[in-house]
Design goal:
Order of helices and strands: EEHHHEEEHEEEEEEEEHE
Strand order of the largest sheet: 1-2-3-4-5-6-8-7
Structural class: alpha+beta
Largest sheet: 8 strands, mixed
Helix content: 10-25%
Radius of gyration: 20 Å
Length: about 270
């Protein structure tokens, strides 16, 4: 189980029988034909026979609410293909739409696929212009098991090298100090100092953004050491993690501190 803000990512097949029964009922409440089909496959014990023995179902939950679900499968609805693995049955309940919550499940699956040595992730869909928002690019059209045309998108699994950046000392300006509000989203209050490195430019053409650790006071400027890079999977920006002190911050501490903003993106932390 992994924490995402106050959400949880659950592997359906690692839950207890009573937990599976509870969340299966929630899956069955989805207003989507494919969601009902997944419900039936899980109810009948046919899911792994169809999708592969190593295939998984992931649930994004908050307390007793099911926010999103999707599968990480060896096979999808494309016959006679060597493409694998697949993300499928992607669904977010209406109440939780608009904040890209499903991105956290895709992010989680991306990490699993990367750990397993895969170079690509695939998804079959009839939706144009949707999965580009989650880091996918169009690959090809294909014919599914029902004889219908479908679009196949792929997501490249990156293996970045930030060894030339991490460990360096940088200095810059804090333009969003701890306790301040986001300039466009006033409900977002910064629990950490956020700024940029003077004279260093990022992929978006603006100066390199940083999260600054090591103080509980708002700052105007900073000078510290880069202890990590948060690489956004569905954006052109990286966020540098800078510490003003020598405390050994854990990955979990960093991810929790920056999740107020990064929960709306997909990414991975390099140390």
């Amino acid at each position: 189980m992994a924490d995402t803000q106050n959400f949880q990512i659950n592997d359906y097949f690692q839950l207890t029988a009573s937990e599976q029964k509870f969340w299966l009922t929630k899956i069955g409440e989805s207003d989507w034909r494919a969601g009902k089909y997944l419900f039936q496959l899980l109810s009948d014990g046919q899911f792994k026979m169809l999708c592969g023995e190593k295939s998984k179902v992931f649930l994004l939950t908050q307390d007793d609410s099911l926010i999103s679900f999707c599968t990480f499968a060896e096979h999808d609805d494309i016959p006679d293909t060597e493409l694998t693995p697949w993300i499928g049955f992607v669904y977010t309940f209406p109440t939780f739409r608009g904040k890209r919550r499903i991105g956290k499940l895709i992010e989680h699956i991306y990490g699993l696929a990367k750990a397993q040595g895969f170079k690509q992730l695939y998804i079959s869909t009839d939706q144009k212009g949707l999965y580009e928002n989650f880091g996918f690019s169009f690959l090809q059209t294909a014919t599914d098991i029902h004889g219908e045309q479908t679009l196949i998108y792929q997501m490249k699994i990156d293996r970045k090298d930030y060894s030339g950046i991490i460990g360096k000392t940088v200095k810059g300006t804090i333009d969003r100090p701890l306790g301040s509000a986001h300039p466009r989203h006033k409900e977002m209050i910064y629990p950490i100092n956020y700024g940029y490195v003077d004279g260093v430019f990022a992929g978006d053409g603006a100066e390199q953004d940083v999260y600054v650790f090591g103080t509980d006071k708002p700052l105007q400027t900073f000078e510290g050491k880069i202890i990590g890079v948060y690489h956004r999977l569905n954006d052109i920006e990286d966020k540098w993690i800078v510490a003003l002190d020598d405390r050994p911050y854990t990955d979990q501490e960093i991810l929790k501190a920056i999740s107020f903003q990064e929960q709306y993106f997909m990414g991975e932390l390099y140390r």
